[in-house]
Amino acid sequence: MPNAEIDLTRMDFNGMEKILEGIFQEGYTMQDFAQLTDQEVEAAYAMACQLINQQQWQKAEKTFEFLCHMNHYDGRFWLGLGLCRQQRKEFEGAAKAYAVAGFHDMENPIPALRAAECFLTLGKLDEAESGVTAALHWAGQKPQFAAVRSRAELLKQGIQEQRKAKS
Q: What is the span of the domain harbouring residue 92?
């Protein structure tokens, strides 16, 4: 990257102000301003998923960071970012990404479950229990979330056992 000084007196802050206003007040995304098509973003998402399948966590993380910046409303991108960070043992950052994923896709129990795993690894039992409770709630009795429910129940038992051991 070139090492050039930025001349702030020549920057168009009006344009930046309009972009920020569009994002924060009107619901636009950086994807809209970058004029990327949905097909181009989906191609980047497919590439990020392929990098995950190849266990290229750092490259996948960078791609998911790009996607999160382009469309901060898409929970899939935040879930992918969380997974990459969790696999790289960056548990705090992973939990934060899962929190945003859960915010954008509240009926999906997976972000809460993954965040609970991160918090448990960090020894944050209260936060882990909160994630497990949310995962169990959103999984409910839905057959497509049976594996999530089973994993959440196991985590809940593990949290209870850790609490007993500390007493």
A: 33-105
